[in-house]
Amino acid sequence: MRTYILSILFSLSCSLVWSKEYNASFFGIKSDGVTLNTNSIQTGIDYIHKEGGGVLVFNVGRYLTGSIELKSNVAIQLKEGAVLVGSLNPYDYNMEGPCYSMIRAISQKNIAIYGKGVIDAQGRQVSYNIIDQVHKGFIKDPLENDRPRRPRGIHFKQCQGITIEGITLKNTCDWTQEYEECDSLWVRGITVDNKAYWNNDGIDIVDCRNVLIENSFFDASDDAVCLKSHKAEVACRNVVIRNCTMRSSANGIKLGTMTVGGYENIRIINNKVYDTYRSALTIATPDGGYVRNIVVDSLQAYNTGNAIFLRIGNRTHSDKVGSMDSVLISNLYVEIPEGKPDAGYEYEGPIEHMPRNISPASIIGLKGHPITHVTLKNVVINHPGAGKPEIAKVGITPEELDKVPELADSYPEFSCFKELPAWGLYLRHVEGIALENVTFIARKRDYRPAIVLDDAHHVNMSKMKIQEPGKKKQQIHVYQSTNINK
């Protein structure tokens, strides 16, 4: 409700600021797709800003540009048929400072990009052109892996009052859009088609508060919708993600990886994930940050490599280890294929440790730092089963379970463990877990039990259903755990 009230107030305040319209041609901006308009577009934005605010309107045409900077009280409207096209020349982008991008804003208020038009960054070719300059020695690549620093599509930092609505964003070099330490951000009805290169996240929310992402579509070669936290003194707070559809060659919805501050009061409601290589939902805190008060409701995932992955790690080997508490996941349905879920897409997820047995959903803390108070309610996980000890065997004897590595400093993806001893759900270093009306379905016989609990305490299971073909076997294995009610 607080988000809705803020949205209404923000819309009312901006309707007056943005009431005056300026046609792009007024500033000599050309729509021929050939003329470089960077200076003309920036002149228009600066002029409207100085005049107290308004809308820079782009009608039908292709508008070529490098880096531009949005200013307070200025909106860009891309009408249907208008395409803002990224320059292919890497040196047309501002490589200096924290916001290396096609469209950026730093410490601005009341800004917007909206309409039925398109932002096409031409990122695949721009990336190749940057790599060409790296190989020739003109641009430094500290990573030396042909994934150099590249311009993002949109990067807004420390801004307040942002609307991104209706537009299509496609083919950026790097993350499609990043909003960092912003307040009052509304993303509505947008389409993201970003499979141009590696690391093409659909949207990244970094240490922002009062965020609404709704009714949008994301197709990305990296995480589709991703929350991050880069600073200990801030966090992602009061975020709603609802009514969205997403596909990814990484994760569908991810809280992490970088988690220094934390995540609090996050609502993820009525979303769909499909053809996704990694987890439909990942919540990770490997860098000392906190996670609390997370609600995920009505998430449907089809043809995704993993259902859910909740993880505490410690990549920095610090005394400050992250925490995760109060997570509710309800009305979840996931179908996991036996094969690679993103096969055939241009940038597929990596083939790691193949062949391997298909991983279970997992909630894994660290020894002495358990994940606490997680509820799974009204959940169906439809798993292929088919796990074979001939591929790789992790058994359930004490010796075998003790050999499952902690991997505190590993990159937090479900695949980092290679093999786990359950096919349905693996719980390790957890406390206060509730499984209510949870169904696990294995389509083929699996050598592993459905559920393994290791260092799990105060776990309540009610109305549990486990379906697996073949002879009945013990489906729940408990090890080093207490107060398990099943």
TrEMBL record:
Q: What are the recorded GO MF terms, alphabetically?
A: polygalacturonase activity
The cross-references to Gene3D superfamilies, in alphabetical order and at most eight, read: Single-stranded right-handed beta-helix, Pectin lyase-like (2.160.20.10)
Q: Keyword Hydrolase, does the record have it?
A: yes
Its BP terms in the Gene Ontology are: carbohydrate metabolic process
* Xref: SUPFAM superfamilies: Pectin lyase-like (SSF51126)
Classification via Pfam families: Glyco_hydro_28 (PF00295)
- InterPro entries reported in the protein's UniProt record: GH28_Enzymes, Glyco_hydro_28, PbH1, Pectin_lyas_fold, Pectin_lyase_fold/virulence
The entry assigns this protein to a family as follows: Belongs to the glycosyl hydrolase 28 family.
Record's protein name: Pectate lyase superfamily protein domain-containing protein
Give the organism, scientific name: Bacteroides oleiciplenus YIT 12058
Write the lineage as a comma-separated list. Bacteria, Pseudomonadati, Bacteroidota, Bacteroidia, Bacteroidales
